[in-house]
Specification:
340 residues, alpha/beta, 9-stranded mixed β-sheet, 13 helices
Length: 340
């Protein structure tokens, strides 16, 4: 009888060890099989394409693909702080994920290239560059320097100037009080065009426009619509002076703590969500333009002469980039070469 009990105990022990081993692999490994929450922070309004893509693609793909081991919570409209604050939160791990712009470029200079003036021709050109070898090169120092793992490039869009006075020639930039992000090359661009630049975070823009602290700002028109700035602006200059990307990122320690299956689910979901957001941005332009026109915004398409003047005014900035960054000219030539 003792031999039978001993044999039965050994069978039960082996079965329990086998089950434990199964639970230590696959989607349920992280957190001992517990559901892990991924907070995703961004500064966009709730109905902006970034958040539409997060809700319709990223969240369901992650939650379903991970078989419930991962839960996604979206914190839009700067709920977890302005861009610098939530980016720092992802870096230190208090926030798992975020979709910042290129705010990290002050210490990772290559990422600033994406927003140099009049560099990208259109969305197809942009996607080809960012999703290829140049995009990988731009990201090569991000994780080791900042402790965040890049997942996918997405689109803020082509930036344009909105203002409460008409911008019909380059002379109209003189004395224009222009809000720009507190990023060096943004400020340099505004000054090169002749404007007086006031740096401030995006969360303060509506109040600054409403109270006439500034006369105008620059952003894609999807942001102008989603943030309600059309209520305090009269004109949009279709300058397309800069492409502004965003980046899906995740804290590196969080990333390393996930199983390979969970990592693949997140990576695939981020790319599909980012691709969808690119599509939404491209398709929404005419719809956004009509909406804004119906709200009283007048659109100004720059003449060929005006467009050339703006490009010439900012061209000296490239000489300063080349002097400052030995790698810059090759990257710029590579980007421009892919526009052909």
């Amino acid at each position: 009888m003792k031999k039978c009990w001993t044999f039965l105990c050994l069978v039960l022990l082996s079965a329990s060890l086998l089950l434990a081993g199964c639970n230590a692999t696959g989607l349920g490994e992280a957190g001992g099989g517990k559901t892990q929450t991924l907070k995703v922070a961004n500064y966009f309004a709730s109905d902006h394409p970034q958040n539409v893509a997060l809700r319709e693609k990223f969240k369901p793909l992650v939650e379903e693909g991970s078989e419930g081991t991962l839960k996604v919570e979206i914190y839009d409209n700067s709920q977890l702080g302005a861009e610098q604050e939530f980016y720092d939160g992802v870096r230190n791990g208090t926030i798992e994920m975020g979709i910042p712009g290129m705010i990290m470029q002050s210490s990772i200079e290559k990422l600033g290239v994406t927003e140099w003036p009049f560099l990208f021709k259109d969305y197809e050109h942009t996607k080809k560059v960012l999703n290829g070898p140049i995009g990988d090169e731009l990201l090569e120092d991000l994780e080791k320097k900042h402790g965040v793992h890049p997942l996918a490039w997405s689109a803020n869009g082509f930036r344009m100037f909105s203002s409460n006075k008409e911008l019909a020639s380059i002379d109209d930039f003189k004395d224009l009080r222009l809000r720009m992000p507190n990023i060096e090359h943004y400020i340099d661009l505004g000054k090169a065009l002749g404007a007086t630049v006031s740096p401030m975070p995006i969360s303060e823009v509506f109040t600054a426009l409403e109270q006439n602290v500034v006369d105008g700002q620059d952003n894609p028109i999807a942001t102008l619509r989603a943030s309600g700035w059309y209520e305090v602006q009269d004109y949009v200059l279709e300058s397309r002076h800069m492409f502004s990307p965003n980046l899906y990122i995740i804290n590196s320690k969080v990333w390393e703590g996930l199983t390979e299956d969970q990592q693949k689910v997140i990576e695939d979901a981020a790319q599909k969500s980012a691709d969808y957001e690119f599509e939404l941005m491209q398709k929404s332009y005419e719809e956004d333009k009509k909406f804004l026109e119906d709200k009283g915004i007048e659109f100004i398409t720059p003449s060929e002469e005006f467009q050339t003047e703006m490009e010439k005014a900012t061209e000296p900035l490239y000489e300063s980039y080349y002097e400052k960054f030995p790698w810059a000219e090759d990257i710029v030539e590579g980007i421009r070469g892919q526009a052909e």
